[in-house]
Design a protein that fits this description.
The structure holds two protein chains of two kinds. Chain A is an alpha/beta fold. Chain A has helices at about 10-15, 20-35, 50-65, 105-115, 155-165, 180-185, 220-230, 270-285, 300-315, 335-345, 350-365, 370-390, 415-420, 425-430, 460-470, and strands at about 45, 75-80, 115-120, 140-145, 145-150, 170-175, 190, 210-215, 255-260, 290-295, 395-400, 435-440, 445-450. Chain B has three domains: about 10-290, no CATH class; about 300-410, no CATH class; about 420-474. The chains are: A alpha/beta, B alpha+beta. At the A-B interface, helix 9, helix 10 and helix 12 of A face loops of B.
Chain lengths: ~475, ~475
């Protein structure tokens, strides 16, 4: 693993053993941060004072010989839709400018308990709606591998921070691929956990029934560790679940891998196809049995995803009206309706407004059955078909993204933009875990391979993805 | 208002919002729901204030309380119930949607069906659902003229049970009787203090034959319900042509002016874009769970009255009145169990001593346990005291805390049933009285004579006195 950076475990060990001057180390990193992040723009907020203070406090406990947490001294970037007490949370939207959450998300409490150090809040597409991290109100994030290109999204800041070694770890959120897409474009590892595995308490919602907080790191083992830390039943999130012991598969020998035919269809770029097929060949070399398989209802996935996501979003985003927090353009107006409209019209971006409008439409009387209920039926169909597929295969494999990272400013229609989520949305609709792992480069640009497992099959993903990464790093 | 009760073809359906005030905390967070007389926006947390990222967690006790109401109304409790979002923009909503329940589009409210028996008719209950209360807007002056509004979110998230009736009422009076019954019911169930201001609120759908359906909102108390409905019936029946007729409409009850004011026409139903609340999984209500809640549900007055008639042989009217007073009912039952004489005990606690017993049960004066009253009744039974004496003894028991036996030792207590002695007393009274002549045919005069004898001798047995007077007169 020579090419990879120090692991989280090793870093925490060194910090615990007092082998690092943590305070000095963190201070110098954050001192250089503005310069490091000038071109990439991974951060919306750098928590310099808080991080140094935290490092000092951890250092003190290390010096006293106290046992430290599993993330002792490890740096993290947190997507800006996850609430960290005392740090702004804007979701890259003007409508939340000035909003500072008065509480920590459950995942943040867990990270603090393990002595992780939060370096700041990471850039994203506005309200996590997008796959480029260019739609936010505070400027785009650029791909550290090619500054002309997008970092992917919506957790682009999180993936770019890790890829550019600004932090060791990051948290993103994945509603339809928002962790895996930027992980793929930035050549890092990103996990979308099983729905319910990680508490959503404190995560500002885009589409509640689809999203999960997901860890991002360079190494599979670090993603696994961070997942281990942030997951678990949470009384504050009624949709969270106790992880049931899924059948765990160790290593790759005898592993049954299903290559999803639909993921290699129309629209896939040649370089991506080649690298992903190479990855499956690599797994075969390690002892797996790869076979082609087809999941026919995948044809409905994209449409179902956008209907459900936009419907939930239209309701979730209603609360931003300028009355209680965030931007408010018409304070003291006599006509609340006009005041709400003005704030919402001017402070939401174009894509967010498009999705609110579409979501409002699909929930309207007379259309609800034709769209929302039909989408839910498609979702059930997809779930059933994946369940059947997992009777034949231990994991399913395909490209994370069908394309290489596009250039900033490439003109695409909203529909073309939605279409490139085609491979990532199924895992969200079905609720299964999915991981994106770097599968080399083509033409100097990163490619990601996506592995999917049955519900709560994260350990299997870590085992296979870890073996693959070790063999190819 | 001359049309009262006279209008034909009146149909009224009610939607009652009942706060579960006995819950102590809100429906989806642990904030106190005791918002009355508090400073504005004091009882809020990130969840009920709608801070982004917070999630609702269902108060399980609220489910239990809703099932109690469903039980009392004879509703069928759902096997699985789900929450829906009702989307609309309004400044009193912290999320601009209300977490509620829905009976269409796959939604299942916590209970449906059921009925309440009024004197002459059955009022059908359509459904019961759980939902959160919005905050409270305050206007400067009136709702139409105010140039701004202030909002207090203390009430936001307080648990409500919405009870929807079928349009089975034909007059304002019926609606009022129903509501009073309902209030007594939720109080007896231990789920709500219905008399608290705003704890029970009501919207009404009113239509008069041939006319449109008018929803009257903002009726703040039951006192106002009858007024508002009568006004609305009058308005619809004597409609002058200056306002639209035959259309569906929402009107607002202006308590100060005692009129309804049009808020908006309902051309189409307002579109609330209901969809399943993705933050709350459906709640499975197993039969065992529902049965255990039912077992723990306090008896409502209606059921109690029925039981008193059947189990203790109490007269229906007395049973009905008695069962409305919960402490008195308990006292009655315990005494009746010991004394074994239902109708007599009922007469006793509902008779002249009723107020004294109620005061005692409220903690005033000395306590006379059910056993004490039963002992006293036994003395009467055994002919050791007259009823009159017993009443006096009971008052003394309440004053002194002494037992019936102790007080019965008193010289005043005892029964003179010696026929000869009584006859002498009767003769004396008959001789001195001017009404003796007419007493044979006039019960009033007869009772007067009995009273005169008893006045002369308090220990005389009234039954014996009456018999002897009757004998003498015939």
């Amino acid at each position: 693993m020579g090419k990879l950076a120090l692991s989280v475990r090793e870093t925490a060990r060194r910090v615990s053993a007092g082998e690092v001057n943590l305070e000095e180390h963190v201070a110098s990193r954050l001192e250089r941060m503005p310069r490091m992040d000038r071109d990439v723009h991974a951060f919306l907020y750098v928590a310099k004072e808080e991080a140094i203070e935290r490092a000092r406090e951890i250092q003190k406990r290390a010096n006293r010989g106290e046992k430290l947490g599993r993330l002792a001294g490890v740096s993290l970037a947190i997507k800006d839709n996850i609430c960290v007490k005392g740090m702004p949370a804007t979701c890259a939207s003007r409508i939340l400018e000035g909003f500072v959450p008065p509480y920590d998300a459950t995942v943040i409490e867990k990270i603090r308990r393990e002595d992780g150090i939060i370096f700041g809040k990471a850039n994203m597409d506005e309200f996590a709606m997008g796959n480029t991290t260019t739609s936010g109100a505070f400027g785009p994030t650029r791909n550290p591998w090619d500054l002309e290109r997008v970092a992917g999204g919506s957790s682009g800041g999180s993936a770019a921070a890790v890829a550019a070694s600004m932090t060791m770890l990051a948290l993103g959120s994945d509603t339809g691929g928002s962790v895996r897409c930027p992980a793929s474009y930035c050549s890092v590892v990103g996990l979308k956990p099983t729905y319910g595995a990680v508490s959503r308490y404190g995560v500002i919602p885009y589409a509640n029934s689809l999203e999960q907080v997901g860890p991002i790191a360079k190494r599979v083992e670090d993603v696994a560790l961070l997942f281990e830390i942030i997951s678990g039943l949470d009384a504050r999130d009624s949709t969270s679940a106790r992880r049931t012991a899924a059948k765990r598969i160790e290593g790759v020998k005898g592993l049954r891998v299903g290559l999803i035919k639909e993921f290699f269809g129309e629209g896939i770029q040649e370089g991506v196809r080649k690298n992903v097929l190479d990855a499956s060949a690599e797994l075969d070399d390690l002892g797996a049995h790869t076979e082609w398989t087809s999941i026919r209802s995948l044809n409905y996935a994209l449409a179902a995803y956008y209907i459900v996501a936009m419907a939930e979003a239209s309701s979730n985003l209603s609360r931003y009206d300028g009355v209680r927090y965030g931007a408010s353009l018409e304070k003291g107006s006599a006509d609340w309706n006009a005041a709400f409209s003005k704030t919402r019209t001017e402070c939401f971006g174009t894509e967010v407004k498009r999705r609110i409008l579409l979501g409002t439409f699909v929930l309207s009387a007379g259309y609800y059955e034709a769209y929302y209920l039909k989408a839910q039926r498609a979702r059930s169909l997809l779930r059933a078909e994946f369940k059947r597929a997992f009777e034949d295969f231990d994991i399913l494999l395909g490209p994370t993204m069908p394309v290489l990272p596009p250039k900033l400013g490439d003109k695409v229609t909203p529909l073309e933009d939605y279409l490139i989520d085609v491979n990532t949305v199924p895992a969200n609709l079905v609720g299964i875990p999915s991981i994106s792992v770097p599968a080399g480069f083509t033409g100097g640009l990163p490619v990601g391979v996506q592995l999917m497992a049955p519900h709560f099959g994260e350990e299997t993903l870590f085992s296979v993805a870890g073996a693959y990464q070790e063999a190819t790093a | 208002m001359s049309v009262r009760g006279a209008a034909k073809g009146v149909k009224i359906g009610l939607e009652i919002h009942c706060q579960l005030t006995r819950l102590k905390t809100k429906l989806f967070c642990s904030c106190s729901s005791d918002y009355r007389d508090k400073d504005a926006n004091e009882l809020v947390c990130p969840t009920c204030f709608g801070i982004p990222g917070t999630l609702p967690v269902l108060n399980e006790k609220a489910v239990e309380f809703a099932i109690r109401i469903a039980t009392a109304l004879g509703c069928e409790v759902a096997g699985t119930t789900s929450f829906y979002r009702k989307n609309y923009f309004y400044p009193d909503l912290t999320k601009n949607y209300q977490i509620s329940q829905y009976d269409k589009a796959g939604g299942v409210p916590i209970a449906a069906g059921g009925h309440v028996q009024l004197d002459k008719k059955k009022v059908r209950i359509r459904r019961i659902q759980l939902e959160e209360d919005p905050g409270k807007l305050t206007y400067e002056g009136t709702i139409e003229k105010s140039s701004y509004s202030l909002v207090d979110y203390n009430r936001a998230g307080v648990a409500l049970v919405e009870i929807v009736t079928e349009p089975d009422f034909e007059s304002a009076k019926e609606a009022k009787v129903f509501l009073e019954k309902l209030r007594a019911m939720v109080e007896a169930l231990g789920v709500s203090d219905g008399e608290l201001e705003g704890a029970m609120r009501c919207d009404a759908n009113v239509s008069v034959a041939g006319g449109g359906r008018v929803e009257v909102k903002n009726i703040s108390s039951f006192k106002e319900v009858e007024k508002a409905l009568n006004y609305e019936i009058l308005r619809q029946t004597t409609f002058s042509g200056t306002e639209p007729s035959g259309v569906n409409e929402t009107r607002h009850w202006d308590e100060r002016r005692s009129i309804t004011i049009s808020l908006r026409l309902k051309e189409g139903e307002q579109d609330y874009r209901y969809f399943p609340e993705p933050d709350l999984p459906a709640v499975a209500l197993s039969r065992e769970y529902v049965a255990s809640v039912r077992r723990g549900t306090p008896e409502v007055p209606e059921a109690r009255a029925k039981r008193y008639v059947e189990q203790y042989g109490v007269a229906k009217q007395i049973a009905t009145e008695l069962s409305r007073d919960e402490p008195l009912s308990r006292y009655f039952e315990e005494t009746a169990e010991i004394a074994g004489k239902g109708p007599e005990v009922a007469n006793w606690v509902m008779g002249d001593s009723r107020e004294r017993i109620q005061k005692m049960l409220a903690g005033e004066g000395k306590r006379v346990p059910p056993q004490g009253l039963a002992d006293l009744l036994r003395l009467v039974d055994q002919g050791k005291a007259t009823r009159d004496q017993a009443r006096r003894v009971f008052r003394e028991m309440l004053d002194t805390g002494k037992s019936a036996e102790e007080l019965a030792g008193n010289a005043d207590v005892g029964v003179l049933s010696d026929e000869h002695a009584v006859e002498q007393l009767v003769d004396k009274v008959l001789k001195e009285s001017d009404v003796a002549g007419e007493a044979k045919d006039n019960p009033k005069a007869f009772n007067y004579l009995v009273g005169q004898v008893l006045r002369a001798e308090r220990k005389a047995d009234p039954k014996v006195v009456a018999r002897i007077i009757r004998k003498k007169l015939s």
